[in-house]
Amino acid sequence: MKAEIITIGDELLIGQVVDTNSAWMAERLNEAGIELYQITSVHDDREHILKALDEAFSRADIVLTTGGLGPTKDDITKHVMCEYFGTSLVEDPHVRAHIHELYKERPDVLNRLTATQWLVPESATILPNRVGSAPIMVFEYEVEGERLKVKGEGKKSKYLVAMPGVPHEMKIAMTEQVLPYLRLKVKGERRETGDIIHRTIMLAGIPESTLAIRIEDWENALPDSMHLAYLPKDGTIRLRLSSYGKASETEMDAQIATLTPLIADYLIATEDQPLEVVLGNLLKERQQTIATAESCTGGRLAAALNAQSGSSAYYMGSVVAYDNRIKEQVLGVAHDTLVEYGAVSEQTVREMAEGVRALMNTDYAIATSGIAGPTGGTKDKPVGTVWIAWATPTGTEARCFHFGVAREREQITMRAVNEALIHLIKSIKTKH
């Protein structure tokens, strides 16, 4: 079955709010075996919403909407859906009771606007929203010609699920209510079409075009039931092999087993995982530890490493040594090194990595120093120049990267973080 997502809200279209909901929802739908066909963002506008619904239902079996369910005048989603499905608002006593319980410690919130939240479309199935006041509304209709009408027995259904746009409310709604509901409703269709199966492997250190040539024969020999996608991102390439109900897991695994020897030199992970998770798993498996010393990345490397649950088992700490005095006094970088070679140099970043490794008594250490911009660049060291070093039990390696003067500061620092993680992962896999 195919699904579409419609996000509703002017704030999304003017850049005031970033749409993180859709990416998260897409992942969950894929896990549930539901193919996402399109994502659309629309204004809080009656005509815009109605048109988007018509277009979505022309392509998809399931339409998921977020946003526009608040109690204020600009939140019109509930009213538009009543118009679209030819129904009217009625009071739901269960929603009313929930809202009174939700705000029992805040009686000031229970006002005439809040009271509109327990008015729901009469023809909708209402699923509870345990953490918010906006109920989850599900419309189940059959298709007859080009119009929707109330579902008859044994007829193929289409579904619209309206959820709040607040991310934590939406996620709880999807996890606890919507996905279980949809899994039950589409069970028969999934038996007919099969599951969506993906296999993803992650590579680094090889250009996309070079990779395509290397695995060309393997790719050309893939059966028609499988599709390969190249997904480059921040120094990595994810190869995703997909089957939409036409191949078994055993067949997919066999294809990956054939592919793996062809790209072994560049293989980072056999799952689609963040780099920091890959590194953390390697360190936990080996019962080893890591520390970081950062200049241009400003603690972003540390933030990535300690964001993972259980990271205390392997991540010992960081020194953000932006000023040269800290590089000298805390990390032990020689004064003469800084004078002769500068802070952005191979010599300095090596001493930073070795210094923090000794300071925190870890197996590994990563150090970064560079010019993230937009100012500070020179002819010899333009903006985007970053030195990265990784100290290991067998020695220290360092490499200079040029991420380009056109990149924004945040892009340069995050690319530096990724490259640091990539190269330590590869070092551990190949040498340790």
Strand content: 25-35%
Measure the end-to-end span. 46 Å
CATH class of the largest domain: Alpha Beta
Domains, number = 3
Kindly identify the CATH topology of the largest domain.
Molybdenum Cofactor Biosythetic Enzyme, Chain A
Rounded mean pLDDT is 90
| Rg, alpha carbons | 27 Å
**Low-pLDDT sequence parts:** 150-154
Q: What overall geometry do the principal axes of the alpha carbons give?
A: globular
Description:
It is built from 16 helices and 18 strands. Strand 17 (385-392) and strand 18 form a beta hairpin. The two termini are 46 Å apart. The strands form four sheets. Strands 1, 2, 3, 6, 7, 8 and 9 form a seven-stranded mixed β-sheet that branches. The protein folds into three domains: 2-193, Molybdenum Cofactor Biosythetic Enzyme, Chain A (3-Layer(aba) Sandwich); 196-269, Alpha-Beta Plaits (2-Layer Sandwich); 275-431, CinA-like (Maf protein, Alpha-Beta Complex). 37% of the residues are buried. The chain is an alpha/beta fold and 432 residues long. The model is unreliable at 150-154 (pLDDT under 50).
State the main characteristics.
alpha/beta, Maf protein, Alpha-Beta Plaits, five-stranded mixed β-sheet, 432 residues, 3 domains
In brief:
This protein is of the alpha/beta class and 432 residues long. It has 3 domains: 2-193, MoaB/Mog-like domain (Molybdenum Cofactor Biosythetic Enzyme, Chain A, 3-Layer(aba) Sandwich), CATH 3.40.980; 196-269, Alpha-Beta Plaits (2-Layer Sandwich); 275-431, Alpha-Beta Complex (Maf protein). The chain contains 16 helices and 18 strands.
